[in-house]
Design brief:
The longest helix is centred in the last third of the chain and has 20 residues. About 2% of the residues have low confidence. β4, α2 and β5 form a beta-alpha-beta unit. The strands form 3 sheets. A 6-stranded parallel beta sheet has the order 6-5-4-7-8-9, with helices on both faces. The radius of gyration is 23 Å and the shape is globular. The chain is built from 16 helices and 15 strands.
Length: 442
């Protein structure tokens, strides 16, 4: 994950000379600002903020506020500024493993708004946005409670809505999303630095687009809710807010620019380089749009693994390592029959079921390794990043007489791999660029 560490990507993009501050391809005249305001949020925003302050503070005063998950405020014990006395507040806005908005996040977001609204034309505002920002930068629209917003998020996520659908609705129920922070900013210049966790890098969907104009409308959100909540079980206040809200607001900042520092393709490419150094003949693909269901992704990985193994056995010169990136969805069963897991453990369990359905013999199974993990170290509401399917996992599953199909039906993939020793637990990785999957045959 070093190739997509947020602090490393930021340090590669940022530099100074006598007259200019360089951020990627953007050159900012140093004479046009006196200080730098840093705001933002996301799972990797702490690492970005700490590195940014380290590099910029020798040149300009730096101040600000960034919302982050608990457990991500100390990405490096070496050379870390003392944030307790520093000018950028790193604000733990939600518990680790709970990727949902909290009241603490709302309070932090309001503080960010206060700062950007009090800025002046001699301030350069730098907004740091990474995956997870939708939950961390949160302030429900007037008339919408945090509980209302949570009900919407849980309904859509549990019903299999993709990130485009989910964030389109989120934007229309928020003061900060959909360009809200952009409209509030009074700084002379605004630059947004993004580590993308949305396939295809649509700027208005990454963290629900707080600093870019929003082209979606309340009608778009209502159409999505009609699909997933046809009987209108969600709070009445949600529907009332959308029905009475005016159309899209495309107001922009006169000096606003955005830079993508890294994305899922960056991680896939780096994994390919690693595979090559290990002697594998690899194939790679990174999704650029919604992939659909996690089970389908798992089935594809299993089918490709079987195909690669057959070619290896036949002595064909074919890939023996498949690397893919993306972010599928999972449609959850009713709460009463629902187990525990995330999309990555679900992918690997679906691959296991597919291999069983194909009646792959045990000696062949021992030659296949499949893994899937979230680059942020979080997979759903669990402490795992994902799971691995290997010879040892198969042997433990056989010993315990566990049926992958049973666990898959209940969306209880975490428990299956917990029992078989297949969980991948990394803790916070200080990045977030969707998921990485690998299938290897040997």
């Amino acid at each position: 994950m070093n190739a997509v560490r947020a602090d490393q990507l930021l340090s590669q993009a940022l530099s100074f000379d006598d007259n200019w501050m360089h951020l990627g391809d953007i050159a900012i005249d140093r004479s046009t600002f006196d200080r730098v305001l840093v705001v933002g949020g996301g799972k990797a925003a702490a690492a970005m903020a700490i590195e940014f302050q380290r590099m910029v503070s020798p040149h300009f005063p730096v101040y600000g506020w960034v919302n982050v998950p608990e457990g991500t405020t100390d990405p490096s014990p070496i050379g870390k500024p003392d944030m307790s006395t520093g000018q950028v507040r790193i604000h733990p806005a939600r518990p680790a493993g709970l990727n949902e908005p909290t009241q603490t996040a709302v309070e932090g977001t309001k503080e960010i708004f206060r700062l950007v609204q009090s800025a002046n034309d001699r301030d350069l505002c730098v907004c740091l946005i990474t995956g997870g920002g939708s939950a961390l930068l949160t302030w429900p629209s007037d008339g919408i409670s945090l509980d209302d917003k949570l009900a919407v998020i849980r309904k859509l996520s549990g019903s299999g809505a993709d990130i485009t659908e989910l964030n389109t609705v989120r934007k229309q129920l928020s003061n900060v999303k959909g360009g809200g922070l952009l409209r509030a900013c009074r700084a002379g210049q605004l630059v947004t630095l993004i580590l993308s966790d949305v396939l295809g890098d649509p700027l208005d969907l990454i963290a629900s687009g707080p600093t870019v104009p929003d082209r979606s409308t309340p009608r778009d959100a209502l159409t999505i809710l009609k699909k997933y909540d046809p009987t209108q079980e969600l709070p009445t206040a949600v529907y009332q807010s959308l029905q009475h809200k005016s159309g899209s607001n495309l107001v922009s900042h006169p000096k606003s620019q955005t830079i993508i520092l890294g994305n899922n393709a960056t991680a896939v490419d780096a994994a390919g380089v690693c595979a090559e150094t290990l002697g594998y003949s690899h194939a790679m693909t990174a999704a650029t749009s919604s992939e659909g269901g996690a089970a389908d992704v798992g089935i594809h990985l299993a089918d490709m693994a079987v195909w690669m193994l057959q070619d290896v056995i036949r002595g064909k010169h074919s890939p023996d390592c498949l690397i893919t990136g993306g972010e599928p969805t999972v449609k959850l069963p009713p709460t009463g029959s629902r187990g525990r897991g995330g999309r990555n453990t679900h992918v690997v369990l679906a691959a296991a079921k597919r291999l069983r359905d194909l009646q792959v013999d045990q000696s062949s199974l021992d030659q296949i390794v499949i893994l899937s993990g979230g680059t942020d170290g979080e997979d759903g509401p669990t402490d795992a990043a994902g799971a691995i399917l290997s010879e040892n996992v198969w042997r433990e599953a056989n010993r315990l007489q566990l049926d992958p199909a049973d666990f898959l039906e209940r969306c209880d993939s975490y428990t299956f791999f917990q029992l078989t020793g297949g969980l991948i637990i990394t803790g916070p990785t200080h990045t977030n660029v969707c998921d990485l999957r690998v299938a290897i045959v040997r």
